[in-house]
Design brief:
heterodimer, A: mainly beta, seven-stranded mixed β-sheet, four-stranded antiparallel β-sheet, B: mainly beta, six-stranded mixed β-sheet, 0% helix, globular
Chain lengths: 115, 113
Amino acid sequence: NAGVTQTPKFRILKIGQSMTLQCTQDMNHNYMYWYRQDPGMGLKLIYYSVGAGITDKGEVPNGYNVSRSTTEDFPLRLELAAPSQTSVYFCASSYGQGWVNTEAFFGQGTRLTVV
Amino acid sequence: GDSVTQMEGPVTLSEEAFLTINCTYTATGYPSLFWYVQYPGEGLQLLLKATKADDKGSNKGFEATYRKETTSFHLEKGSVQVSDSAVYFCALSDRKGAQKLVFGQGTRLTINP
């Protein structure tokens, strides 16, 4: 069982370039999330989705976009990369139904450097 | 909004020492509480959780008790091992809606043999 798979693992971008971070999960989870982790800080929520076709902003959405066309995939798009977006990005997924609160599973992360 | 405050690190201990990492939270509702662990080069893994007041979560010798009166969820282990070296994150999740996690800043733990 692969769980949550992120690609690429590492990437260096130049200022103003664009890229898409890929995330896919094979656990049929309805909830998916993108977080960023800056040095010495906890994870901050960028965007999340409660199901295919439904996305919403988290705490730090500026400079990013997402889409959720299928249950499995939740790509994160950076349109105009800036040095402030240098970070480690984590995708996560979980199953939610009513008040049931299940474990979130995380991918291994994408380390992005913008120069 | 909801927030989590963790004991500042880094923390360095000798093998077999007793470990406590403090965590307190602020939340408007009745959140679920979690400890996640991140080993070098890996993503986060759930270590333990508690979903209501006075619940004790436990796993791999680690324990934490949900204390509503002190809004705390301190992580403890009686005898740490070198393999416990990692970054530990305390987090909360509102049990309704999208179950978004709010994280503390993380505590880096190093265990020396």
